[in-house]
């Protein structure tokens, strides 16, 4: 009863809030209707989804395997180099809109939970940021995505399994060739935690990041995990369609 009244009340408060401080779609900037959250219905319907959770040997898997590491399955939720949709990642990552990150991650978790290709996954691990970057940004975007995805899959997230070894400059400052040399060998596995997971029978891990471009960072993160005896699948919020 009280919950219902509170719910009605909150709806009215939001409706009033929408009049005073209109909420806008994070893709197209249109004002949101009362029942809409963060992204308007039209932009959600138009979202350039990859559907790669449905089929193997997709471009993302090939991109990672080309870097010399094995991956069981890989997918992203959407292609982000489309007008407006690239803003979603920027707004989450650089403006710290964590609600938006959680919203997108929950959608990623939803499609993964329905996909037989990801059914063998036993634990979720975010790709870490170097401590300095994490401190500067205040949060690691992959931690937030991993938490949300783990929740959707009824699994646990282990943000301490991988550690970033040294500070790498933001990738965009480098050309493709330099990028790979720059990230290779930059992640290490927490061997004590890895041992504990293996003893619990956990051998299949879903590695999470916000975006996948060349796959170089992802491959660098996968390598020590494979060496530590894990089978790796990959999911990111967004990826680049063609390079
Ligand atoms: Zn919109």
How many E strands?
Answer: 6
The CATH topology of the largest domain turns out to be: Rossmann fold
What's the helix count? 10
Give the names of the bound compounds.
Answer: zinc ion
Average pLDDT over all residues: 89
Radius of gyration: 19 Å
**Which segments are poorly predicted (pLDDT under 50) over 5 or more consecutive residues?**
none
Could you give the order of strands across the largest sheet?
1-6-5-2
- CATH architecture descriptor name of the largest domain: 3-Layer(aba) Sandwich
Tell me what the structure shows.
This protein has 243 residues and is α/β, with parallel strands linked by helices. The protein has two domains: 1-46, no CATH class; 47-239, Rossmann fold (3-Layer(aba) Sandwich), CATH 3.40.50. Helices cover 44% and strands 14% of the residues. The chain is built from ten helices and six strands. It has helices at residues 2-20, 41-45, 59-65, 85-93, 98-114, 131-137, 141-153, 176-183, 191-199, 216-227, and strands at residues 74-79, 123-126, 162-164, 187-189, 204-212, 231-239. Helix 5 runs parallel beside helix 7. Zinc ion is lined by residues 25, 27-28, 30, 39-40, 42-43.
Q: Nutshell version of this structure?
A:
The chain is α/β, with parallel strands linked by helices. It contains 10 helices and 6 strands.
Throw out a few tags for this protein.
alpha/beta; Rossmann fold; 2 domains; four-stranded parallel sheet; two-stranded antiparallel ribbon; 6 strands; binds zinc ion
């Amino acid at each position: 009863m009280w919950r219902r009244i509170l719910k009605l009340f909150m709806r009215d408060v939001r409706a009033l809030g929408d009049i005073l401080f209109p909420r806008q779609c994070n893709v197209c900037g249109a004002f949101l209707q009362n029942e809409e959250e963060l992204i308007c219905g039209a932009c959600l319907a138009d979202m350039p989804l990859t559907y790669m959770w449905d089929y193997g040997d997709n471009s993302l898997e090939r991109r990672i395997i080309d870097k010399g590491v094995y991956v069981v399955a890989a997918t992203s939720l959407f292609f982000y180099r489309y007008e407006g949709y690239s803003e979603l990642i920027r707004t989450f990552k650089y403006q710290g809109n964590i609600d938006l990150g959680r919203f997108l991650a929950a959608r990623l978790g939803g499609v993964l939970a329905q996909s037989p290709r990801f059914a063998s996954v036993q634990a979720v691990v975010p790709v870490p940021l170097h401590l300095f970057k994490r401190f500067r940004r205040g949060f690691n975007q992959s931690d937030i995505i991993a938490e949300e995805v783990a929740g959707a899959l009824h699994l646990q997230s282990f943000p301490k399994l991988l550690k970033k070894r040294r500070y790498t400059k933001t990738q965009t400052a480098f050309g493709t060739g330099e990028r790979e040399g720059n990230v290779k060998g930059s992640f290490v596995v927490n061997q004590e935690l890895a041992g504990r997971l293996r003893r619990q029978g956990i051998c299949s891990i879903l590695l999470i990041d916000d975006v996948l471009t060349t796959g170089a960072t992802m491959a660098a993160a996968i390598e020590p995990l494979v060496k530590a005896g894990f089978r790796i699948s990959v999911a990111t919020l967004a990826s680049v369609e063609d390079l």
